[in-house]
Amino acid sequence: MSDTLSGNAGNGRADVIHDIGYRHYEGPRLGAGYATRSLYTASLRGAFGLGRSGKSKILPMAMAVIMIVPAVIMVAVSVYLKSGKLPIEYVHYLTIMQFVIAVFTAAQAPVLLSRDLRFMTVPLYFSRPLRSSDYVRAKFAAMVTAVFILTLLPMLIMWIGSMLGSMPFGYNIQHFSYSVVAAAFYALVYAGIGLAVASLTPRRGFGVAAIIAIFMVSEGVAGVIFQVIRHQGHDAAAHWVAMLNPGLLIDSTVGWLFGVTPDHGPVGVPSTLGGFVFLAEIALIVVGTFALLVRRYRKI
Amino acid sequence: MTTISIDRASRWFGNVVAVNDVSMTIAPGVTGLLGPNGAGKSTLIHMMSGFLPPSSGSVVLDGVPIWKNQQAYRQIGLVPEREAMYDFLTGWEFVLANAELHGLSDPGEAAKRALATVEMEYAQDRQVSTYSKGMKQRVKMASALVHDPAVLLLDEPFNGMDPRQRMHLMELLRRFGAEGRTVLFSSHILEEVEQLARHIEVVVAGRHAASGDFRKIRRLMTDRPHRYTVRSSDDRALAAALIADGSTAGIELDYKERALQIQAIDFYRFTELVPRVAKEAGIRLLTVSPADESLESVFSYLVAAK
Amino acid sequence: MNVTVARLTMRGLLGRRRGLLLLALPLLLIVLSVVIRVVAGQDENTAAGILGGLGLGTMVPLVGLIAGTGAIGPEIDDGSIIYLLAKPQPRWKIIVSKLVVAIGCSVVFAALPTYIAGLILFGTFENLTLGYTIAALIAGIAYSALFLLFGVISRHAVVWGLMYALLWETIVGTYVPGAQTLSVHQWALSVGQKIADPGVISSSVHLPTAIPLLLVATVGGAWLAAARLSRLTLAGEE
């Protein structure tokens, strides 16, 4: 019970009322830009489980390990055997690892968005200088960066390994740069889809299931339709199925852009026109998911 | 007559000791579990309701441990603190489901009665998700009452209730206590406990700080003086007469209040002393009132003493 | 089995969004089957690919995941399960009731559509459709039990279930053949293999191995889930 001294006791002590209540903040106020950047950093760390409990680190770190370890082994073996070139094309490594990227996205996109939706803290963000578009931008950028890190790391390892193994520099730097583009595509497309779906539900578990369902089912469907069309004899046209599945889409587009298409399998473009259409679709997905997110969060 | 006995129970989570060697008995009637936030009240209630085992010691209902004892729920009604309920149900459906889960022979009748007791019939056909906080609390109460339990455990039941709802709930709990049920409710708000519970258990930082009638608890703490405010026809003379006796530790003439602020260290002697001295000196007593009999001061003494 | 628990579970599970996704998956399968049948006619490989790959390999585990974890996960997460637990109901009854609902969802949203898709694609020849349908049924039951168990044990049940169904069963299974012995997918296939005409369906696990493993997964999973549920703690405001 705080006392408020009043009156005087006639003994020379000064009469003071101490105000120990609310204090105003008089320091500098950083603007919305700072807030957005902070949200970006915090979300990026959260995507890898940093700054949260131990359990939330397991999955993202496990996925990162699964992404990196085969690359390390591959590089080590190639260097040891002095084979002169890496056994797999840079971008094909990412193709093999598509599942891992999908699982990472499916698991972590809800981590970024569901908590705020579940506990309805989103309006709290918007009562600050942060606008809804800033929020979306920060989260989108964070997720894209996270997936980009995930996909770039093994590529970096392969490239550094190639240099350590004295493999042809020009060839490797060229193909490494192809993989950087591929990694960027993966980051933008997967993150966009993941976030767009995650923003629809406050329940994290359900968000995870929904995202992975989209990736898996679209892949299955695309595979089936590919086989059927090929069976009918339209080999080239069968590649249009890439429009149905993000992974396939990226693979085909990257293969077309840089001439690294594998000989068989659903990866590939039906024609040059198809290549441009695929590129357009990638752009559409990225822009579209971002726009959807902005619209969604404007209404909250 | 159902009694919950907690015997030297402790509960720790890793390095954090939430409940530290607590022993208490919750008997029929209304008992208030009082303590600041984080004192371990919720942990204690979770242990009493069978949702947390004690790390050591025992928590029993009429001699039978409550942990992993589903049959105990025939006698226990629990009103949890968290708001989460089956939002998609209506109030009626929710209470009915609870009645059915208890295996009652006429769940519909029991549900009707329970909803009538908490006066929620008017909204029973609306979805729970549309309820206000106080309405949700009342439906939770109904779900806890539906099987006519002998023990009622309420975790912060007055949270979010407006004064009228609070009065109504207090009346309800008083009635249950009078019927011989064992009612335990937790709170960190002193007025609620003061008005409702005769018997309180005070928990501070996981330790059992005090138990009993709050006035009696106060009396037990004779190491801290009682304060009284006394007004009379001649304050100074009364002060002089009172300080001469060993039962007073200090007297202050409060000019603003025009009263004497007296610190008494021996309560019984003091209460006998004041009228006697006044009579002998011919002083008229105008006001004699305790300045710190409320639970608030009890509580703050306990908290400060730790 | 308790009817009230089942009713509550069903209403909670088939809420708007989850119900939509559960409906969308089989609908997609059936529509695809119709289109393929119309375009490409009747073909065994295609039918096996769709029913085995898209159906049994993707849709059935997904439905099992959504139904199994959804039957108990959200309730534990937000604490509303306390209303089921603070009752004199044996925990195994609660688990069985939820399991029945999850299995029911699996039947309706996975096994039945597999049957319909199979009929559309391949009719009843060689018992292919029946084989895959029974496989989907069995797999659905096992997945439901397993994922219900995950839901009781872990808050991140969906993610763990995903890791199992996808990474373990598909990727690890491809590279480490031994892992296929511990795969619900393969166990179900071996049952389907028995039912369909010889040579139509193949599995890397023998039936005498698969059946006891299926029983262990289903019954053991349910029993473990009940045991864990009876020890569930709600320690404060989490």
Topology:
The complex is a heterotrimer of chains A (300), B (306) and C (238).
Chain A: H1 32-47, H2 55-81, H3 90-96, H4 98-118, H5 122-126, H6 132-164, H7 169-198, H8 204-231, H9 246-258, H10 272-298
Helix pairs in contact in A: 1-6, 2-4, 2-6, 4-6, 4-7, 4-8, 6-7, 6-10, 7-8, 7-9, 7-10, 9-10
Chain B: E1 4-13, E2 16-26, E3 29-34, H1 41-48, E4 56-61, E5 64-65, E6 76-79, H2 91-101, H3 107-117, H4 133-145, E7 151-154, H5 163-178, E8 182-187, H6 190-196, E9 199-204, E10 207-213, H7 214-220, E11 226-232, H8 235-243, E12 248-254, E13 259-264, H9 267-281, E14 285-290, H10 295-305
Parallel strand pairs in B: 3-8, 3-9, 6-7, 7-8
Antiparallel strand pairs in B: 1-2, 1-4, 4-5, 9-10, 11-13, 11-14, 12-13
Helix pairs in contact in B: 2-3, 2-4, 3-4, 8-9
Chain C: H1 3-13, H2 16-40, H3 44-70, H4 73-78, H5 82-85, H6 91-122, H7 128-153, H8 157-175, H9 184-195, H10 207-230
Helix pairs in contact in C: 1-6, 2-3, 2-6, 3-6, 3-7, 3-8, 6-7, 6-10, 7-8, 7-9, 7-10, 9-10
Question: Would you mind describing this structure in some detail?
Answer:
The complex is a heterotrimer of chains A (300), B (306) and C (238). By secondary structure, chain A is an all-alpha fold. Chain A has one domain. Chain A is built from 10 helices and no strands. In chain A, helix 4 packs parallel to helix 7 (169-198), helix 4 packs antiparallel against helix 8 and helix 9 (246-258) packs across helix 10. Chain A starts with 31 loop residues before the first helix and ends with a helix. Chain B has helices at 41-48, 91-101, 107-117, 133-145, 163-178, 190-196, 214-220, 235-243, 267-281, 295-305; strands spanning 4-13, 16-26, 29-34, 56-61, 64-65, 76-79, 151-154, 182-187, 199-204, 207-213, 226-232, 248-254, 259-264, 285-290. Chain B is elongated, with a radius of gyration of 24 Å. A 6-stranded mixed beta sheet of chain B has the order 6-7-8-3-9-10, sandwiched between helices. Chain B has a 4-stranded antiparallel beta sheet with strand order 2-1-4-5, with helices on one face. The longest helix of chain B has 16 residues, at 163-178. Chain B is an alpha/beta fold. Chain B is built from 10 helices and 14 strands. The two termini of chain B are 34 Å apart. With 238 residues, chain C is mostly helical. In chain C, helix 6 runs antiparallel to helix 7 (128-153) and helix 7 crosses helix 8 (157-175). The radius of gyration of chain C is 18 Å and the shape is globular. The model of chain C has no long low-confidence stretch (mean pLDDT 89). Chains in contact: A-C, B-C. The interface between A and C is medium-sized, with 28 and 38 residues.
